[in-house]
Queue: 4 jobs
Job 1
Amino acid sequence: MKWLRMYRLLVVASLRSRMQYKFNFWFSSVMAALINVVEFAMLAVILLRFGHIKGWSLAEAGYLYAVLTLSKAIYRTFASDVHHLEKYLVNGELDHLLLRPIPVLLGLMSQNVSFRIGEVIQGLTVLIICMSTLFHEGQLSWLTVPLTIVVILSGSLLLFGIGLLTATAGFWLTRIEELQNITEDAARTAAQYPLSIYPKWMQGLLLGVIPVAFANYVPSLYILRGEGGIGLVAAAIAVAFLVFGVSLILWRHGLTRYQSTGS
């Protein structure tokens, strides 16, 4: 509880600092939303033209997209600079966090906090529209609502774990931007769409090597289609906690390998 209170104070201080430049804050939020709109529009155009893709309707694909977008927004809101650890390693900024009387990860998470308002609004809008369509078609029940909330939260934890694992590699590799482009950006972008559209090796990559598909696709097989049973949702939650737990262990080990730049 002490660390949570400390994190809250640091987050408030970070937000006050960022709000000194209000135009930049709101402009970046709007641009983030527009980028997501364009990404989804590309999929929507294809689905509207052909009706479905590998048996997935526009509403179902939109559900997958919205869930992952909201999970990413939560992760990047509360731990944005985990994705930018490289600059801390290269510039020696991690030294300042090591000197603080708080856990290094907590200090890193409180840096440059920004609420992903644009992504949240866009994700919620797509989610509500798609779920309303599926409710109208009789494909969903009201149990879908709490299950969706659970999946979004477990997905954010999973994305956090994958991001932290990649960031931890920086203690050995230092330059990890390209690796992050693969494990976070590229993998998450691929998982925004139904996994069935990809070849088997790609599906195996997104399920076993970089298990981002457990953030949306796997639990959605049960939520949207009743396939596999409630165990798929439980499996998604279990994978999220497993990946996050392993990332914390490796993070602590990685900190012992850190060598200061001397700056």
Note: The chain has 13 helices and no strands.
Job 2
Amino acid sequence: MADRPYTVLSAAMSLDGFLDAGTSERLILSTPADLERVDALRATCDAILVGAATVRRDNPRLLVRAPGRRADRIAQGLPDSPAKVTVTGSGDLDPDAAFFTAGTTERLVYCPPDLVGDCARRLGDRATVVGVDGPGVLVDVLADLAGRGVRRLLVEGGGRVHTQLLTGGLADELRLAVAPFFVGNPTATRLAGDGGYPWCPDHRARLVDAARLDDLAVLRYALSDRFEES
């Protein structure tokens, strides 16, 4: 068993690198065709991870939508959708959020050890709560997921989680849809925040594919020597 799953980061952003508008109004970045692309990607993964802020802000279901893809997973002896994973530092999670109520797939919540009891009581049987702590929280999360049999992990946000995985050198590939407009709001969430990144002018990420999908540019980057061409 590898010490962490093969990790794919997936995001849609504006031309100036924002994931949202920085307001209470949800910013629509993807198109129906792009959502179909992401659904196909979800169907290939064992688990989907998002930060707790994304659970609170976007209320995502994180399910494979296409009936044919769900049926294919079941035929392979898999759940119809990947397991859902979130990481919280505060334990502020609503047990009635779609993350916990949509679908029947396994749900995992990682939080500081001293919050495990409160989180477990709040969420009840809607999630398994696991304690992780320290500066290498996501390293421990990925190691625990690998120990649970997660071989391929899809990370769908938000910016803080993307930043920690990228600066930690914990991502194997990045799939990025770029919408043809600007946000221009410094309070909005960027794809990646400040930090020391492994990729720089002397160590460039490798562009594997670039495609046009509706009016989006869809880019795929290899970020590690574990990159899988499929």
Note: The chain has one domain: 6-222.
Job 3
Amino acid sequence: MKIPKADIMRHGIFLVGVLSATAMAYWPLTALLGSRLARDYHSLIPFIPIISIYLLYLKRKELLKGIGYSFLIGPAILIAGLAFFTACTTFGGSLNLNDNATVITASSLLVIWGTFIFAYGTKAFTSALFPLLFLVFMIPFPYEVMEWLITFLQKGSTEFANFLLWLSQVPYYREGFVFHTIGIDVEVAPECSGIRSGLALLITALLAGYLFLNSWWRRAILALCVIPITMLKNGIRITTLTLLSTYVDPRILQSPLHREGGIPFFILALLLMAPILYFLRKREEKVNHRE
């Protein structure tokens, strides 16, 4: 199929915007992804644009309906992104590696969104709202926000583990984030907060809600369920490791099962999310059938 020259021009403008944004964010994100923080908290960033591109591809026919240039809103957002980028590179020398990547990546996304609106119009942007806003997950959490989230999940996971250990009738006592059992002390460290798997679960829930649910509030319910399920999943993992190290082998706490054994528990979290999605979808289908 032959592409009209007008559309080629639009695609070219958007491509230039994407390449410019990529150049802006490349070095800050590369430096961050090469640090220890990437392994613990930011390892999902490289997958986000791939998912967004695929979602845009699914919406391609709808996006091409009623497209038109936006000479006011698009350039305004584009200029705002360039202004934030300039300010950060000029005055952001005091920012740490994480926060510098946060500001510059956010600036690059403004450039992408502004260029998209300029080339295709606000109607197309509305049609592509989820795939384009999904790129927000490329932005690293500011350091202070990350610390708060880790502490929040750490506390919640510890409470779930405390409840599960109580149910198991294992003799133990607790001091803050530390569980003392027979000859073993197990600490729920910040690294055990599950922030990375929780973020992966949130991304999965948002994608599932976008693909299988229509109402925004049902999508919101599915996403909010990620919080208790992440904590419960971590609580089960902590309890399992505690029981195994107490009654099987204390070396389990230094084994790969402890350091790299999160995948089975992540699968468990997905299995816990599945009936929630099923229930929300069935309820939505029933309501639509009545209408």
Note: DSSP finds 14 helices and three strands in the chain.
Job 4
Amino acid sequence: MAYVDGFIVPVPKANLEAYKEMARVGAEVWMEHGALSYVECIGDDIPYGEVTSFPRAVQASGDETVIFSWITYENRERRDEICAKVMADPRLAGDEWKQVFDGKRMIYGGFQAFLTR
């Protein structure tokens, strides 16, 4: 079964175009190194919940939107190989990407798929 890395990221609306460019570069890098798919989504219907929600999870403020993204791989072992190559890729090493969003509020994790259709 496939392996999935999932991400939820708060992005200032003023930085949305810079984030999109970073995502385009990221997609190119991950796919070149062997990812099966790379998806980035901008929050459209993400109400601020009373108890929990996407905006609450990343402490998004009124001038931020939430990005939901995922990358798929053949399996965990392949994901680990690909991520090592991605982290060493100079296209993602620039300091300019660090200013696009607050990485301390990003939520991410790896998931073992058990059902796909």
Note: The domain at 3-92 is CATH 3.30.70.100 (Alpha-Beta Plaits).
